[in-house]
Design a protein that fits this description.
330 residues, mainly alpha
Length: 330
């Protein structure tokens, strides 16, 4: 749900090779492991010193294409976990990375959209992050193009990358009005979410799926029966998990439904609760959503003040998708 102090600040071949060498016990160990893993698969130089010199040259290539040595390392070693973790953090919708101003998010993601990362399956996370940036500026064409680049890589990048790609695809399909595709995507997402290993992450994805299903019930038509079904989806989310994002989604969704059912006092209490959960997790954009819902529920000067507050925060985040958005859409 957040970045770590030991995460690398950026990625180049020097960072990549340095992490491999450190994690495997030195240059000699990396060369030996590469020769062992590549035996019978690709033809490497027979002299270990020649390979080591090639790897040292690779570490000086900055962000240029890695050539054969780069391909060999990525194929037989993959991306070191600190780099993969950072890429995942930047591409995940419910991480705190997305609470940075849009221009900063985009700058960081583009600095990773180059070798060695762009030559690996971990690039799926970078494409997903840039797709999310495009969504923030309401550029659905660019978002779809980035999603198309992420999707073929997502399975190799891990179950959570697959889920991100599916949920983003469902969101774009919803914007196009392709309800059949949305339904298929959410069914598949539910199957995958149940297999996510970490409980906190599993809960986050389940909350996102419930929210997308609820949105389908509430837009464009509502009606008491549909609102009650959407309310039940949010009520089914656990209220005892210590994950601020999940607790936000539950309270916010319930608050929206209670507002639509005419229970304004309860709706406002739930919207305030959602704002507190967002604050607890440092989730600024979701706090904006809570204030937007509070503004819709409130009346008169209070509503105006809340709406202005939400718009100031959204502008600070450079989050155009939040400006003037529906209270339950982001």
């Amino acid at each position: 749900m957040r970045g770590r102090d030991d995460e690398p600040p950026g990625c180049s071949w020097a960072v990549y090779v340095e992490l491999l060498v450190a994690s495997h016990g030195g240059w000699t160990a990396v060369v030996d492991m590469l020769m062992h893993r590549a035996r019978g698969v690709v033809e490497l130089p027979s002299d270990p010193q020649t390979i080591e010199r090639g790897l040292r040259r690779l570490s000086g290539r900055g962000n240029a294409p890695g050539g054969k040595y780069g391909r060999w390392l990525l194929r037989f070693f993959g991306v070191p976990e600190p780099l993969a973790r950072t890429a995942r953090w930047m591409g995940q919708y419910h991480s705190r990375f997305a609470d940075l101003p849009r221009s900063l998010c985009e700058s960081q993601l583009r600095s990773w959209d180059r070798p060695p990362i762009c030559e690996s399956s971990v690039a799926a996370w970078i494409h997903l992050g840039l797709a999310a940036v495009a969504m923030r500026r309401r550029d659905h064409v660019d978002a779809a193009a980035r999603l198309a680049r992420a999707t073929p890589l997502a399975a190799a990048a891990g179950r959570e990358a697959e889920l991100e790609a599916i949920l983003l695809g469902a969101r774009l399909a919803s914007e196009r009005g392709d309800e059949a595709m949305v339904e298929r995507a959410l069914d598949r997402a539910e199957q995958l979410a149940a297999t996510v290993e970490l409980a906190d992450q599993r809960a986050c994805y389940q909350a996102r799926i419930a929210d997308q299903r609820a949105y389908r019930l509430l837009h464009p038509a509502e009606g008491a029966a549909r609102i009650e079904r959407a309310r039940a989806l949010h009520a089914a989310l656990p209220d005892d998990v210590e994950v601020p994002f999940v607790r936000f989604r539950r309270a916010h969704g319930l608050g929206y439904c209670e507002w639509k059912l005419g229970n304004r006092e309860l709706a406002m209490a739930l919207a305030r609760e959602a704002a507190e959960h967002a604050a607890d997790g440092g989730l600024v954009r979701f706090r904006v959503m809570a204030f937007t819902l509070m503004a819709a529920i409130a009346e008169g000067e209070q509503a105006h003040a809340l709406r202005q507050r939400a718009e100031r925060m959204a502008a600070t985040l450079e989050h155009e998708d939040l400006l003037g958005a529906q209270p339950n859409r982001c």
